[in-house]
UniProtKB/TrEMBL annotation:
Record Pfam families: adh_short
Family of this protein: Belongs to the short-chain dehydrogenases/reductases (SDR) family.
Protein name: Putative short-chain type dehydrogenase/reductase
Keyword match Oxidoreductase: yes
Alphabetized InterPro entries for the sequence: KR_dom (IPR057326), NAD(P)-bd_dom_sf (IPR036291), Peroxisomal_Beta-Oxidation (IPR051687), Sc_DH/Rdtase_CS (IPR020904), SDR_fam (IPR002347)
Gene Ontology terms for molecular function: oxidoreductase activity
SUPFAM superfamilies linked: NAD(P)-binding Rossmann-fold domains
EC number(s) per entry: 1.1.1.-
Record has Oxidoreductase as a keyword: yes
Keywords: Oxidoreductase
Domain Ketoreductase, residue spans: 10-206
Residue ranges that the Swiss-Prot or TrEMBL entry lists as coiled coil: none
């Protein structure tokens, strides 16, 4: 690690960093000069605790390559756990410069079969988890008059996907949360951005393969390694990214996208107000050409990644 590293002396908390995208970001952050808090609950894909070794294993990898890191096993879904991991960062390293909200679970199922428990668990980790860690970090960032929050959203929420009502709702909520944070904390030079990552990881390994088309899609995803997400994430965490806030990006292999955010696309007006009949006869026909189709993410990102 040299003085020329883009994250030299920065302290970064990465949640869900025991594997996949989180692990890749934690390792790359350390290579770029950051001191890293590696958080992982050691849970299964569905959120059941399995092992306490995941975070420690990544810390060992970082230390073997000459970096500095500490392990944390708290749950992002627990506000006390989120406060504990932020406190661990400041206790160990004296400050905290960025939080990458990456922790997540999946409990997929079609909406008419989804239980309250499966909806609640996924929203708690993704949306409440992002709130909990961001809220805990906000006090530190305000005192420092600087800080960066990077949240992992998903095209499942931004565009849509089958059998993921819980995950999609949480991930679209994360995008709205990020925008609100960016607005509320701008006066303290705190920025907040989202990334929708395309990468093969434990989260995407649960995709059902029930057709040749799905098999081909999964094979394309397997070529998109988690390390491809790290450069954008770590730029947003660096001082060089200090002028970027309130944005939603997507990363797919070697492509970086800026995603749109909801804005009016077409309007109709009735000077004397609308009746039910007028809506049927005039408003809907005039607006229909701009209706959003029932796309899923794969319909929109339908070309092979490069």
């Amino acid at each position: 690690m040299t003085d020329q590293q883009p994250l030299n002396d920065k302290v970064i908390l990465v949640t869900g960093a025991g594997g996949g995208i989180g692990r890749a970001i934690a390792l790359e952050a350390a290579k770029a000069g950051a001191r890293v808090v590696v958080n992982d609950l050691g849970a299964s894909l569905g959120g059941q605790r399995e092992s306490s070794d995941a975070a420690a294993a990544v810390v060992s990898e970082i230390e073997r390559m000459g970096g500095t890191a500490v392990a944390n096993g708290d749950s992002v879904a627990d506000p006390d756990g989120a406060r504990a991991m932020v406190r661990q960062a400041t206790d160990a390293f004296g400050r905290l410069d960025a939080v990458l909200n990456n922790a997540g679970i999946l409990r997929d199922g079609f909406f008419h079969k989804m239980t309250y428990e499966d909806f609640d668990a996924v929203v708690k980790v993704h949306l409440y988890g992002s709130f909990n860690t961001s809220r805990a970090a906000a006090d530190v960032f305000r005192d420092q008059n600087a800080g960066s929050l990077i949240h992992m959203t998903s095209t499942s929420g931004l565009i849509g996907n089958l059998a993921q009502a819980n995950y999609s709702a949480a991930k679209l909520g994360v995008a709205a949360l990020s925008k609100s944070i960016a607005l509320d904390l701008a006066r303290w030079n705190v920025r907040s951005n989202c990334i929708a990552p395309f990468a093969w990881s434990r989260m995407t390994s649960s995709i059902k393969v029930d057709s040749p088309e799905q098999e081909a899609r999964v094979n394309r995803m397997k070529a998109m390694v988690p390390e491809k997400i790290a450069p954008l994430a770590l730029h947003l965490a660096s001082d060089a990214g200090a002028d970027v806030t309130g944005q939603i990006f997507a990363v797919r292999n070697n492509e970086i996208f800026l995603m749109s955010q909801s804005r009016p696309v077409r309007s109709v007006h009735a000077g004397d107000g609308w009746s039910i009949d007028a809506v049927r006869e005039r408003a809907i026909p005039a607006l229909r050409a701009a209706f959003v189709p029932l796309d899923v993410s794969a319909d929109v990102f339908c070309w092979d990644p490069v």
